[in-house]
Amino acid sequence: MAAAAGVPGALGTLRAGRARLVAAYCAGIGPGWRLPGSWTGLPVGPAIWARGWTPAAGGAAWRRGYSSEVKTEDELRVRYLEEENRGIVVLGINRAYAKNSLSKNLVKMLSKAVDALKSDKKVRTIIVRSDVPGIFCAGADLKERVKMHSSEVGPFVSKLRAVINEVANLPVPTIAAIDGLALGGGLELALACDIRVAGGTQRLPRAIGMSLAKELIFSARVLDGQEAKAVGLISHVLEQNQEGDAAYRKALDLAREFLPQGPVAIRVAKLAINQGMEVDLVTGLAIEEACYAQTVPTKDRLEGLLAFKEKRTPRYKGE
């Protein structure tokens, strides 16, 4: 951001708009690798596959011991991290029996969680991940969808789209940590995060261009990590670890980098970037100026200036 360049305080800590659009990701799938069990369903849009765990001898897959049945209230786990990670919130999708597909209940829980997080001033960064090994999100729950009356489908799709937009509009940085397969709406959810992975019919063209987006969507192609990086969908391709959570660990490292920065500055910078990308340059610069003006009367900006003068670490309070 141009206005940030000369400001050593809260907004200045963003280093002149050098935003880290870095996606934590896992790659390197071997020949013939498949999801355990049967995999059925319609191919919906492009997808990305990250190796979720290492197969044991005899073809069996290593697992974390998840139950095949999960109570509906446990389908989305919201964890507020503590100690040195205070300010980081992890949203863990946990529908192992349905490959983390987006059901009515899960969408409702996600909407409720996002609604609470957007007004929580103590939240500094949000990580969206899967608590199920080998799968991020399989998109819509087609088994549930087939049971819906035709009159229910439209409202559900609208609600899903609204929730994904709510994720995109969260005021703090969001990171999608993908340690497995993501399809359709699962990819759209990942793309709604600031540090994103891949997929979707509206956000995908904005990320990689219309022509390539059409190719991926029309073909329903599955990309591995290296291919996704090659087309510009992700920035980090990581070798998977034994626990199957390399992407989450990378996302956590990135979130820790955000914590020392001024929370007010982070919020307005995200707003300026998101809105500025949707308009022409002149309008974008005006948005940037208006966003910077919001930081001028804040205590965080003064704290940043004072810390710079005293050569110490700022103690921001988000005010």
Explained architecture:
By secondary structure, the protein is of the alpha/beta class. 38% of the residues lie in helices and 12% in strands. It is built from 11 helices and 10 strands. It has helices at residues 104-117, 142-145, 150-168, 185-191, 203-208, 210-219, 225-230, 246-258, 263-276, 281-295, 299-310, and strands spanning 26-27, 47-49, 76-80, 88-93, 125-130, 134-137, 174-176, 180-183, 222-224, 238-239. The strands form 3 sheets. It has a 4-stranded mixed sheet with strand order 6-8-2-9. β3 and β4 form a beta hairpin. α1 (104-117) packs parallel to α3. The chain is globular, with a radius of gyration of 20 Å. It starts with 25 loop residues before the first strand and ends in a 9-residue tail after the last helix. 42% of the residues are buried.
Highlighted features:
319 residues; alpha/beta; 4-stranded mixed sheet; 11 helices; disordered N terminus
Please outline the helices and strands.
Layout: E1 26-27, E2 47-49, E3 76-80, E4 88-93, H1 104-117, E5 125-130, E6 134-137, H2 142-145, H3 150-168, E7 174-176, E8 180-183, H4 185-191, H5 203-208, H6 210-219, E9 222-224, H7 225-230, E10 238-239, H8 246-258, H9 263-276, H10 281-295, H11 299-310
What is this structure, in a nutshell?
With 319 residues, this protein is of the alpha/beta class. It is 38% helix and 12% strand.
